[in-house]
Specification:
single chain, 166 residues, mainly beta, Immunoglobulin-like, five-stranded mixed sheet, 43% strand
């Protein structure tokens, strides 16, 4: 109780003396700083703006995803694929909790695999995502999405790359 009275007293004194009290908002929601992909042909979005392509017959369909995030707390990273450049109706391919003391802190990377029978997984996922419903033809233009989300609220942010699934 004494501490609360002291805080109120100092606020009154500061405002009476013409002092401005600055209130800073605390936003724990993570923000996605960067998101890069290295495709089947070695195209790296960190250095190139060429069209990305993932081919199940080159390097066994392996490709890389890297990101940097800014977060004050632990956050969830989701890799998604979609026929549109947003997360609605997207297919979740991979999810990981990141933060201090975890494999991914303010950034990370995953190795993903695309198979010829239209499955997509990351980091040797035990339950690969079936993306056959998105594949109308081959090659198919889709969107690879990286999403970062706060664990305690619905706050999320994402970025995407158009990608040709061979």
């Amino acid at each position: 109780m004494k501490n609360n009275c002291l805080i109120v007293f100092f606020c009154v004194v500061l405002s009476a003396c013409g002092g401005d009290i600055e209130v800073r908002s605390y936003n724990p929601a993570p923000s996605l700083v960067s998101f890069d992909v290295v495709d089947s042909y070695g195209v790296d979005t960190a250095y190139s703006s060429k069209q990305l392509a993932i081919d199940p017959y080159i390097d066994n369909g392996l490709f890389d995803i890297f990101w940097r995030a800014n977060s004050l707390e632990d956050y969830r990273t989701n890799v998604r694929i979609s026929s549109a450049p947003d997360i609605s109706n997207s297919i979740l391919v991979y999810s990981e909790i990141c933060g201090a003391g975890r494999a991914c802190d303010q950034g990370g990377g995953v190795i993903c695999e695309y198979t010829s029978d239209f499955y997509l997984s990351c980091n040797n996922g035990r339950n690969p995502a079936d993306i056959a419903r998105l594949m109308k033809r081959v090659p198919q233009s889709l969107y690879l999405i990286l999403e970062v989300c706060d664990l305690d609220s619905p706050a999320c942010g994402y970025r995407y790359y158009p990608i040709s699934m061979q």
